[in-house]
Amino acid sequence: MKRTFIVHAALAACIAQSLVFAVPVHAQTEAASTTTANPLPEADKKFVQAASMSSSTEIDAAKLAMSRSSDGDVKKFAGHMAADHTKLTVQLKMAAPRGVSVPKDNSDTALLDSLRPLKGAEFDTAYIQKVGLQGHKEAVSAFQDEIANGQDAKLKSAAQKALPTIEKHYQMAQDLAKKKNVTAP
Asked: Can you give the pTM of this predicted structure?
């Protein structure tokens, strides 16, 4: 069963990777490319950027957790994040208006780079703090902001449908932090 879970998590990560290209965060890419016939309002651009970055970072960080963590609970959380954020990425792409390109693999490279040299308990603490707690807190805020201020009906609807999942992830991260005695950053 554990092997099946790891295989499914790895498969989900591979699927997610096939959906995205590398775009470094520091390149200050535009949130979404648009055509002149279909410009995307600024609030919606910000949401597309934040949501795609969040999911991409979650997927890439989950891959790191699978190899750098020695804790079964952390690996289970990471596998769950990879699978759910792969689905959320697909849903975001489907909700994007015609002519709008969702950024692909625009992970937070600085965050990932800060995790790469870590292993074991040190990795677990940083992963829970930066990805689990802080990352999901920021994602909840971005989804709530889209619901309140977004102008594109499909993107707002996608945010409304996804918000409970993001909030559940944040609660899962809080529960994991409490179990592992990790405090918020």
From this structure: 0.80
